[in-house]
Structure to design on (260 residues):
C-alpha cells in the first residue's frame, strides 16, 4: 500500500489528467452540451468496447496492427541505429546522406506506399516497409546527434590510452550515444503506431486503421470511438513500456527526452 501511495503521489497528474478529461466528456454528453449521437458517453463507449472484445472483433483487428508495428519498428530500429552510428562516425558519409534525408524526411510516409509497392511484394511487406520510413529517419537522426555530442576530449583521451576500432566504439561511442538512441527508439515506436494506422486506412482490410475508417464510413460511432480508445491506449503502453524497459535494462542511462 505504501508503494502504491508513493507511486500515486509521484504520478498523480499523469493519471489524473486523462481521467478528468473523460469525466468532463461524460458530463458534457449526459447534459446535452455535446450531441450524444456524435459524442457518446465514455461509459457507453467502454461498454461497447467490451462487447467488441468479447465477440472477437477487437482482437481480430488489433493483432494485425501489433504485428505490423513490431515488424516496422524492428526494421526502422536496426537500420536507423546502424546508419545513425555510421553517420555520426564518418563525416563524409554524413555530408553525403544529409541532403538525401532532408529531401525525403518531410514527405508523409503513407505517400511512399505506391513507390514501395514497385520495389517489394505488395501487401504486408509493402505496408511494413512504408510504415518504417518515418521511424527510420527519427532513429537515424537522434543516433547521429548522440554520437556527435560526445565530448571530443573524451574520445581523444580514450584513443590516447589505447582504445581504437571496436574497443573505442564499444566502450566510448556507443555508451555515450545511448541516451539519444533510446530517445529515438521511443519516438520511432510512437510514429510506427501512427503510420501503421494511417497506412491501414488506405490499404488494409484488417487492422485498427481499417476498422476506424470502416466505422466512420458507415457511421458506427461507437465502433469508431472504441477504436480511438484502443489506439490511444496502445500508444501510451508502447511509449511508457519502452521507457520502463530502458530504465530496467540501463538504469545508468538518462532519458534525454525527460526534462526531469
Amino acid at each position: 500500500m505504501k508503494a502504491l501511495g508513493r507511486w500515486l503521489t509521484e504520478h498523480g497528474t499523469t493519471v489524473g489528467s486523462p481521467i478528468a478529461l473523460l469525466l468532463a466528456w461524460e458530463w458534457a454528453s449526459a447534459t446535452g452540451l455535446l450531441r450524444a449521437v456524435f459524442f457518446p458517453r465514455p461509459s457507453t463507449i467502454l461498454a461497447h468496447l467490451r462487447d467488441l472484445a468479447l465477440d472477437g472483433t477487437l482482437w481480430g483487428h488489433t493483432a494485425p496492427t501489433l504485428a505490423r508495428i513490431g515488424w516496422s519498428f524492428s526494421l526502422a530500429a536496426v537500420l536507423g541505429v546502424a546508419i545513425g552510428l555510421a553517420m555520426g562516425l564518418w563525416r563524409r558519409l554524413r555530408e553525403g546522406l544529409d541532403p538525401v534525408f532532408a529531401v525525403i524526411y518531410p514527405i508523409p510516409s503513407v505517400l511512399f506506399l505506391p513507390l514501395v509497392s514497385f520495389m517489394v511484394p505488395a501487401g504486408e511487406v509493402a505496408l511494413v516497409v512504408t510504415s518504417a520510413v518515418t521511424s527510420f529517419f527519427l532513429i537515424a537522426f537522434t543516433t547521429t546527434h548522440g554520437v556527435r555530442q560526445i565530448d571530443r576530449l573524451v574520445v581523444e583521451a580514450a584513443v590516447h590510452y589505447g582504445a581504437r576500432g571496436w574497443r573505442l566504439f564499444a566502450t566510448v561511442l556507443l555508451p555515450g550515444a545511448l541516451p539519444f538512441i533510446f530517445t529515438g527508439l521511443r519516438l520511432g515506436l510512437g510514429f510506427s503506431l501512427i503510420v501503421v494506422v494511417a497506412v491501414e486506412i488506405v490499404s488494409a482490410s484488417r487492422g485498427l486503421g481499417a476498422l476506424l475508417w470502416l466505422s466512420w464510413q458507415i457511421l458506427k460511432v461507437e465502433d469508431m470511438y472504441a477504436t480511438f480508445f484502443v489506439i490511444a491506449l496502445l500508444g501510451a503502453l508502447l511509449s511508457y513500456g519502452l521507457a520502463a524497459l530502458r530504465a530496467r535494462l540501463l538504469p545508468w542511462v538518462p532519458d534525454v527526452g525527460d526534462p526531469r
